[in-house]
Design brief:
about 280 residues; alpha+beta; Glutaredoxin; four-stranded mixed beta sheet; 4 strands; binds glutathione
Length: about 280
């Protein structure tokens, strides 16, 4: 793969290769690979996750809700080690048939509610607690537009740019060039918007900021893919200003640590069941 002699066969065949650390996990079929029940803690909200950009969106949101005084946002956060294939366990697949973290169960509803897709989980929690999403129709439309924009852009940043620039063992110019171009265009979209506004939708911080900070915020703060120089992130001054402001929020600092398995040992909170788990 990667040289210009590759000719696609008539029918694609699944062949495992060692192109990246994720190769042994990626597969073209859905469904569970093994039986494994999910654990359940004492709080109504049960989160099954890992501190990736998509996972952190939800722990930041829950910590923000708790910071506002919503005691019903207390949650258990269970670690799902995607590098070990735990997202393919039968219990997890029942909560998310797409086998990706994050996934949430809400046991406070008349029958338990499952929610998957980080954008859907953010909106579910925002509606449940009436926080971090505007209620006025136009403001809400703006918030949902930026939230869905982020959800649509993440595959370019993470699945595209991050995969080929950072994770892939061999670096190929064509995909890196294509995805760097799109990521820079998206950074410019954000930068122009944030030139006029403090947060993505205006004066108020909301779920669109949480979702976007976890991807583009981390990228411009050089916490993602070690690509700050390559993408010249410093030139997106408004994005850097916005990300820096969000980054220091105490709830953001707490949420980033939940289900974290890498980085400094003292910052990792593998599972969270109580506020005291985050020291
Ligand atoms: N669109 C999904 C994407 C979730 C996603 O890609 N999760 C990754 C970690 S960030 C995952 O679980 N990967 C495991 C795998 O691909 O097997 C969302 O926003 O929730």
């Amino acid at each position: 793969m990667g040289d210009n002699t590759y000719i696609p066969p008539k029918v694609w065949i699944w062949e495992t290769n060692e192109e990246s650390q994720w190769s042994s996990l990626n597969r073209p079929i859905a469904g569970a690979t093994h039986h494994k029940e999910l654990p359940r803690g004492e709080h109504p909200l049960q989160l099954y996750s890992l501190a990736t950009p998509n996972g952190v969106k939800i722990t930041v949101m829950l910590e923000e809700l708790l910071a506002l005084g919503n005691v019903e946002a207390e949650y258990d956060a269970w670690l799902v080690r995607i590098g070990d294939g735990e997202q393919f366990g039968s219990g997890f697949v029942e909560v998310n048939p797409n086998s990706k973290i994050p996934a949430l169960m809400d046991h406070s509803t008349p029958t338990p509610t499952r929610v998957f897709e980080s954008g859907a989980i953010l909106l579910y929690l925002a509606e449940k607690f009436d926080a971090f999403v505007p209620t006025e129709q136009s403001a809400r439309a703006e918030c949902l537009s930026w939230l869905f924009w982020q959800m649509g852009s993440a595959p370019y940043l993470g699945g595209g740019f991050g995969h080929f620039y950072h994770y892939a063992k061999n670096k190929y110019e064509y995909p890196i060039d294509r995805f760097a171009m799109e990521v820079k265009r998206q950074l410019d979209v954000l930068d122009r918007n944030l030139a006029e506004r403090r947060y993505l939708c205006g004066e108020d911080y909301n779920i669109a900021d949480i979702a976007t900070y976890c991807w583009y915020g981390n990228l411009v703060l050089n916490n993602q893919y070690e690509a700050a120089d390559f993408l010249d992130v410093a030139s997106y001054e408004n994005v850097v200003r916005w990300a820096t402001e969000i980054d220091v929020r105490p709830a953001v600092q707490r949420g980033r640590r939940v289900n974290k398995t890498s980085g400094p040992e003292e910052l990792r909170v593998l599972e969270r069941h109580d506020a005291s788990d985050i020291s």
